[in-house]
Write a structure and sequence with these properties.
With about 240 residues, the chain is mainly alpha-helical. It contains eight helices and two strands. Helix 4 (about 85-110) crosses helix 6 (about 150-180).
């Protein structure tokens, strides 16, 4: 009887070891990306990299922009001085107010089969970012060497809020939906890491503010946003095909 019990225990131990090995092998297989998943992951990373151009153009608002306002904008209106943070508040307020309007617009477009895809929305956001920086260029030109009227930086902040709603929530939604499940959380982390990269580049580019005229500085940021939009156009067909597969 004792020998029988020992034999049964030995067989159970072997079965447990075998099952554990099978589970380890299954986990190992789940951890590997298929060729299609690797292709999709590359496409997702490419989209994230493209948005760096717009982030650089967008977030200069919180680096050099307040310095430029202090130096070149006529903030005295009706005997009162407009606080610089009020301009930033316009950007946040615009993002809040425009969100439901954009949802309604996209639903209306979808009902007519005309809603732009995620890549198109990111491209539209880049286009708005180009216009955003050109607003400052136009304000500088319109001032004729005098201090710039506050309406121009106010319009800049409003346009920045709209641009943000087109590209950043759309980017996060695209990454969350398209990234393979095995690396989904990692891809979301990389999306936010792109902001870290962007802000470091923004700091470096900010060093050119003292070497360039304000007009040249903001025109350069319009060109940076335009470069991101151009890449969306050039790679859009390939990215769309891979991410929709």
């Amino acid at each position: 009887m004792k020998e029988i019990l020992e034999e049964l225990e030995r067989r159970r131990s072997i079965a447990r070891l075998g099952g554990g090995k099978a589970r380890i092998d299954a986990q190992h297989r789940r951890g590997k990306l298929t060729a299609r998943e690797r292709h999709t992951t590359l496409a997702v990373i490419s989209v994230i990299a493209i948005t760096v151009f717009q982030s650089i153009s967008q977030y200069q608002e919180f680096n050099v922009f307040p310095v430029w306002i202090q130096q070149h904008v006529a903030r005295e209106v009706g005997g009162h001085t407009i606080p610089i943070p009020w301009f930033f508040s316009l950007e946040s307020l615009t993002s809040i107010l425009v969100a439901p309007l954009l949802i309604l617009l996209w639903r209306w477009q979808a009902s007519r089969r005309g809603e732009p895809g995620d890549l198109s929305k990111i491209g539209i956001g880049a286009g708005i970012a180009v216009v955003t920086n050109l607003i400052l260029v136009m304000g500088i030109l319109a001032s004729g060497g005098a201090r710039v009227h506050p309406i121009w930086p106010a319009l800049y902040c409003v346009a920045t809020g709209i641009s943000f709603m087109y590209y950043w929530p759309t980017t996060l939604a695209l990454v969350s939906r398209a990234a393979p499940a095995k690396v989904n959380a990692t891809m979301m982390g990389i999306a936010y890491m792109s902001l870290f990269v962007s802000n470091n580049v923004i700091g470096w580019i900010g060093g050119f503010y003292e070497r360039l005229s304000p007009l040249e500085f903001w025109a350069m940021h319009a060109a940076i946003a335009a470069a991101g939009g151009l890449i969306v156009i050039l790679l859009g067909r390939w990215l769309g095909r891979v991410l929709s597969a």
